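Bug #77: duplicate submission created two jobs. Keeping one. Sequence:
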Amino acid sequence: MMPIEPRSIRAGLSFRTCAVLFVFLAALAGWGSLNAQSQKAPPPNCLGGTLDAPIRLEVFSDFQCGWCKAFYTETVTQILKNYSPADKVCVIYYEFPLETHPYGRKAAGYSLAAQHIGKKQWLAVVDALYTKQEKWSADGDIEAAIKGAVSAEDFELLKKNLQDPSIEEAIKRDIALGLKKGVTGTPSVFVTTLNKEQLKVQYLSYEVWKDYFNSIVK
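Kept job's structure:
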């Protein structure tokens, strides 16, 4: 049985509690002097930053999940704008469509098909899927929702990529990884610093993340 989307942000976890928790973890782990996590090139599902970034967020998300949309539009976009370009935060994205959402898996397929073209096209499709979620979630017309996000040539290539069996296999791999890591709802975010996974959360506002990042990187 697949996980169920959470109805609340995080039961019993207040804004102040999260901020204190993050600062405590930073001090506990001794993050004053940072080293690169890895010399590997970023994987294709890296939204921003590289694996050398001192902080890594692994996000398991469902394009049809309302909380996932809020997390992407209000938080992830700000992280990609303010922290990833300086390689302070690496954001890794995993597809985790829930069975309760009839079009979530289809949307994940479009995302991966765009990823096979290039990062620019992938980011454009991810953005379109989330910002236009209300429309395609109602009528299932994902193609119409993303048609203007990429060039006509790339759009045709994207549709061709959708037929590749590797797309469905990639979705299955992401779901299997999420289940192995204990994902029970979306969005689920795993935080890693200095090659040490520190904690898992389901939803936090950008203000909390910003305080956390600034306690680690300057």
